[in-house]
């Protein structure tokens, strides 16, 4: 596999040049804003909550990795994009299972491993261009809905439900990016970035709010 091979996945990109996706690249500032706002909340709250702080750092890494991918746009640059996203998904799920559902850490960790294996299998089996590559995010949406329904505290359920709703809308914008290209050459991938930043902020805020109800 040629890791330096250029990748063209989104409507906005018209060639292999570095700045062919300016809006997709610059819209990643939304993740930095989400991380900054979450960090401000963390500093005002329980500074012993290192788990949420680690996830805030991962959100900042998502911004950097996605910016690199939408500028460099090669196979190796894609790793900088997908790895921080995967770390956040699995890391947040582990935290959510412990903090929201009050599962023992060993049970929560085993659940995350099983979830990761299933999600990777689905991504491997699905056709690469099915739903414009959005299939790989469906397990994350399903997990978010499941945890929202199972959460013990009403406020947590409402916040996670809001995050799931925004994530579903965000996923729809990601999916239609190529299809809408003839009518809207800019594409809609940048909306995916902005709405996902909202989702991540809501998730981080929810984790910090639930911290007072469960010390972990």
Description:
By secondary structure, the protein is mainly alpha-helical. 69% of the residues lie in helices and 0% in strands. Helix 2 packs parallel to helix 8, helix 3 packs antiparallel against helix 8 and helix 6 packs antiparallel against helix 7. The chain is globular, with a radius of gyration of 17 Å. The N and C termini lie far apart (42 Å). The relative contact order is 0.16. The mean pLDDT is 94.
Secondary structure topology:
Layout: H1 22-26, H2 29-44, H3 50-72, H4 75-99, H5 105-125, H6 138-150, H7 154-175, H8 189-211
Low-pLDDT runs: none
Largest sheet: none
Number of strands: 0
- Rg is 17 Å
Helix-strand topology string? HHHHHHHH
Residue share in helix: 55-70%
Mean pLDDT: 94
Structural class label: mainly alpha
Helical stretch tally: 8
Strand content: under 5%
What is the general shape? globular
Distance between the termini: 42 Å
Can I get a quick summary?
With 216 residues, this protein is mainly α. Helices cover 69% and strands 0% of the residues. The radius of gyration is 17 Å and the shape is globular.
Properties at a glance:
216 residues, mainly alpha, 8 helices
């Amino acid at each position: 596999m040629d890791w330096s091979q250029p990748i063209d996945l989104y409507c906005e990109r018209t060639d292999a040049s570095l700045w062919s996706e300016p809006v997709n690249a610059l819209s990643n500032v939304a993740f930095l804003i989400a991380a900054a706002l979450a960090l401000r909340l963390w500093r005002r709250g329980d500074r012993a909550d290192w788990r949420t702080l680690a996830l805030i750092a991962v959100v900042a890494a998502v911004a950097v990795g996605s910016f690199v991918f939408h500028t460099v746009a090669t196979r190796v640059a894609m790793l900088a994009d997908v790895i921080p996203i995967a770390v956040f998904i699995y890391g947040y799920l582990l935290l959510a299972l412990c903090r929201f559902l009050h599962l023992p850490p060993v049970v929560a960790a085993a659940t995350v491993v099983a979830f990761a294996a299933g999600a990777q299998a689905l991504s491997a089996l699905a056709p690469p261009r099915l739903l414009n590559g959005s299939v790989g995010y469906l397990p994350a949406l399903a997990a978010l809905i499941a945890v929202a329904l199972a959460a013990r505290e009403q406020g947590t359920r409402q916040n996670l439900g809001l995050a799931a709703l925004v994530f579903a809308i965000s996923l729809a914008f990601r999916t239609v990016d190529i299809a809408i290209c003839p009518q809207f050459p800019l594409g809609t991938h940048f909306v995916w970035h902005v709405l996902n930043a909202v989702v991540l902020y809501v998730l981080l805020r929810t984790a910090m709010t639930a911290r007072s109800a469960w010390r972990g």
